[in-house]
Amino acid sequence: MTRIQSGGRTAAVSAYIGIGANLGDPVAQVRGSFARLAVEVPDTRLAGRSRLYRNPPMGPPDQPDYVNAVARLHTRLTPRELLHALQAIEQRCGRVRDGQRWGPRLLDLDLLLYGDRVLDEPGLAVPHPGVAERNFVVLPLQELAPGLEIPGCGPLAALARAFDPAALIPVEESGDSEAEAAAVEPPPGRRAGAGA
């Protein structure tokens, strides 16, 4: 969905957020992130979520495994505003940015995609760098949007074929909380039961 102006009001854009944690209770951190995205990000709705997956850390091996997932948002925020909202959630959850790349995290929220936009600005790159090379991003993204095209990388389905799905371990979830399920809404203009 491309960001457009309509009668002085910005139309919603689909944005995809990578979620990861490997400190504290990573499953609770990631699951809680879905609810936080739904209620703490202004002018934004949580429109979908992938399953949770456990995978080895990408960085230093002397850290716990990660739990990762992807969320789809419909937002009226600009990419920069959305990034700031994600960083504010990380900070409220105890994330301290110490400059360590790929180190352990209480919570990591990455702006993966923002519509079909390509941005390379100080502190903001969309698509997120390396998005097409990470199984813990590509495979959960495919759950949410199998027909998605990643700008500059190609069709998601083609990217997904490069990964072994068995490399990610699905996290058993004992059922979604009612609050989380209620937070996921259909895309703007569509309501449940309004056809496919």
Automatic annotation (TrEMBL):
Keywords carried by this UniProt record: ATP-binding, Folate biosynthesis, Kinase, Nucleotide-binding, Transferase
A Pfam family that the UniProt record links to this protein: HPPK
Low complexity composition-biased segments: 180-196
Upper lineage: Bacteria, Pseudomonadati, Pseudomonadota, Gammaproteobacteria, Chromatiales
Organism encoding this protein: Thioalkalivibrio halophilus
Segments traversing the membrane: none
Region Disordered, annotated ranges: 173-196
Residue ranges of every copy of the 7,8-dihydro-6-hydroxymethylpterin-pyrophosphokinase domain listed in the record: 101-112
Source organism, top-level taxon: Bacteria
UniProt record similarity statement: Belongs to the HPPK family.
Function noted in UniProt: Catalyzes the transfer of pyrophosphate from adenosine triphosphate (ATP) to 6-hydroxymethyl-7,8-dihydropterin, an enzymatic step in folate biosynthesis pathway.
Record has Signal as a keyword: no
GO biological process: folic acid biosynthetic process; tetrahydrofolate biosynthetic process
Recorded metabolic or biological pathway in which this protein acts: Cofactor biosynthesis; tetrahydrofolate biosynthesis; 2-amino-4-hydroxy-6-hydroxymethyl-7,8-dihydropteridine diphosphate from 7,8-dihydroneopterin triphosphate: step 4/4
One Gene Ontology term of the molecular function aspect: ATP binding
Protein name as it appears in the record: 2-amino-4-hydroxy-6-hydroxymethyldihydropteridine pyrophosphokinase
EC number: 2.7.6.3
